[in-house]
Amino acid sequence: ETDFLTGSYRRWTKTKPLKDVDIFCVLGEKERTHRSKPPSELLSAVETALRAKYGRDKVQAQRRSVCVDFGVSAVDDLTNYKVMSFDVVPAFAKNDYFEIPDTRSSTGWTSTNPKVHADRAVEAHEAYSKEWKGLVRMVKYWNNHHDKPITPSFLIEVMALQVLHPPFGGELDREMQGFFETLADRIDETWPDPAGLGPAVSDSMDAGRTTAARAALRAAGAAATNAIQLTRAGKDGSALAAWRALFGPLFPLS
Prior knowledge:
- The structure is a single chain.
- About 45% of the residues lie in helices and about 15% in strands.
- The protein is built from 8 helices and 7 strands.
- Helix 6 (about 170-185) packs antiparallel against helix 7 and helix 7 packs antiparallel against helix 8.
C-alpha cells in the first residue's frame, strides 16, 4: 500500500558508505494471510519478488528483512554517494504501529514504530545543541572500523538516548571520551526498544559479545584520552593521527 525510508538513514544517524538502507513496505489486505503463517514464508515471498527484478545472487532474506545488494564496492568508505544495499522490510499496519516478521522471535513477529524512534532522535539532537547525531554517527563509524563489537549499530543510538545527558559540554573531544567510557560501563545492561513495542535492542549481545565490546570501548576511551593529551602537549599533528587511527581513514588530518 505504501513504502517509506526508515532506520538510521531516515533519522540522520547513518554512516557512510550507505549500506543496508531500510525501506518499510507496508502490505495491504490482499497479503494479510501471510500474517497467520511463519514469518519465513513472507520473507521468502519478498525474496522471490526481488530476485525477479535484481537477480538471485543480489538478494538474500535476513532476520527481519530482505537485503538487495547492488554490488557497489567501498574503497576507504567512499562510494561516490552510491547506495551499496537496501534492507526491504515487509510490514503490516496495526493501530498506530507496525508488525514485521522476525525469524528469531518466539512469536515470529515483532512490533515496531519507526516514527517514535525518529522523534526520540530529533528530541535528543535538539536538547544536545544539535551535536547528538554527530556523536552517534562517529561512534557508529568507530564500530564499523573495529569489526562491529556492538550489534546492532542501533544499540549505540539507543544507549546514547540515555548516556548523553544534555546540555552539550562544548568540547567534542571530551564528549567523545566520556561517551566511550560510559558505553563501556553500561554495555552489559538490557536496553529496551524506545518505542516500548519490540524486544530489547540489546538482545544480540550475549556474554561473549558484551565482554569483547567492553574491552573495545575501554580501548577507544584510552585512545581518546591519549589524543586529548597530545593536543594539550601542542602535538596537533600526532593528535589528529591518533583520532584517525581510532575512527578510520575519513577522519581529517588538518
